[in-house]
Amino acid sequence: MEQWKPISLDDLYDGIQKTEKDLDEELKNFWDLIKIDPIKWEEKEYGVMGGGFWVVAIFGHQVIWYNDIEEGFNISDYKTFGKIEDYWCDQDELVHVIYRLVEFVKGERGAIGGRRGSAESML
Prior knowledge:
- This protein is an alpha+beta fold.
- It has one domain (about 10-120).
- It contains four helices and four strands, in the order ααββββαα.
- It has a four-stranded antiparallel sheet.
- The radius of gyration is 14 Å and the shape is globular.
- Mean pLDDT is about 90; it is low at about 115-123.
């Protein structure tokens, strides 16, 4: 069995760039407003092993980050810059996470939601 390794920054950028090529104009404009250069943020439960998780966008008090354990993007709250508040084990593609945020901003979604749950709720 192959041992888990954190995603490299190059591989993360490759995935982001592939998504950016496929975004329609509305989603691309929104993404351009919230995206940041990926940076590792702390997460106290599962992020220690990989040195944190890559945050790729900030929207208010929430971040979009890549969970390289589950191989998908998530939205989590943050109170302190550099620290992800809650762990989610979603396996969403980046485009779906961006779309959910756009729906929320447009008032088409009452909450950002769409989360499959924390690790505890999955047990």
